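Supplementary Text 2. Reproducibility record for the structural model of the 107-residue chain.

All settings were left at their defaults, and a single model was retained for analysis rather than an ensemble. We include the record here because the model underlies the residue-level annotations in Supplementary Table 4.
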Amino acid sequence: MDCLTQRIELNYIIPAVRKDFIHILEKKGLSDAEISRKLGITKAAVSQYKHRKRGQKTRFNPEIKEEIEKSAEKIMEGKESDSEIMNIINMMKKSKDICCMCKKECK
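Retained model, structure tokens:
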């Protein structure tokens, strides 16, 4: 099977990044409603991420985790979450981390 990085992004990376954003924003004292607004997702989706029903299949290397932390700070300051997610995806493409994910998923 050929691997489309878009499928990896949609099914693995975006949910895992959102899960991490939610965890970080929650630690900073934001309510589910505030997190929902900042990430552009429903409160129900926030709940699913918090209760481990989404975004659990992917683990990031320390460099990516650090970037997720920085991005969460920017989101707190009002930056768009989608642009921060795209920055993380691009970082993963540049470092070839996304290629490793494709190899594991698309055998």
